[in-house]
Prior knowledge:
By secondary structure, the protein is an alpha/beta fold. It has one domain (7-178, 220-230): 4-Layer Sandwich (Metallo-beta-lactamase, Chain A). The chain has helices at 20-23, 56-62, 69-75, 111-119, 183-197, 212-217, and strands at residues 7-18, 29-40, 43-47, 65-66, 83-87, 106-110, 135-139, 143-146, 149-153, 162-168, 171-175, 220-224. The strands form two sheets. The chain has a seven-stranded mixed β-sheet with strand order 4-1-2-3-5-6-7. It has a five-stranded mixed β-sheet with strand order 8-9-10-11-12. The radius of gyration is 18 Å and the shape is globular.
Amino acid sequence: MGSRIPSVRRIDFGYFVRPADETGTGKPRIECVLGYAIEHSAGLLLFDTGLGEGDPEVDAHYRPVRRPLPVALRDAGLAMNDVQWVVNCHLHFDHCGGNPALASRPIFVQSRELRAARTATDYTLSHLIDFDGAEYRQIDGETEILPDVLAIPTPGHTDGHQAIAVRGKDGTVVLAGQAHNTAFDYAADQLAWRARHEGRVDDPALDYRPWIERLQQLDPSRILFAHDQAVWEPATGRFAKT
Length: 242
């Protein structure tokens, strides 16, 4: 693959129906399930692997519509054999469903996330975690897992949640997973951080997640999400020009 700069492709894994009692709106909502392939000079890294299966109760609750991993990769111009590494933002069933099909590939995960997946009740589907050929690379805190590819802790949705920052030709792209559910939610936190940073607003009620500071230090050109097709971009700069 030479020495080219890393690039990112979106992978469509399908969608599910989030029940009304989980949306905060009183209405159910259909949410996409997205992963991302990082094409690196060292090989292909896959961030999240789609919706797991094997639990009728979970399927009845979320009514998932799955796009199988080989099909999802093929439609992005990729193949299963291309994948050399896996990163999961966290280990809920809708983010690690394809992991068993990628047995023997190293899976980068925060140690506390793997511990929770193995011990917490009703956390995930156990057969997606400890399967034949599962090869975890446990990390603790911010780690450069490949040159120009950083894993960054973003706790909130789960204690061990992580995002990935990819330094590429178009600036730094952050794969936020479910650190926020939507680009709108991220923008709200980022603006609260900006207002505090600029000394314009001093209101403790306008709080934000502390890792926003670290992500903004990376001067991201785009932030991409697992359950939202919208993309966050900075309000000014080359990506805001028309």
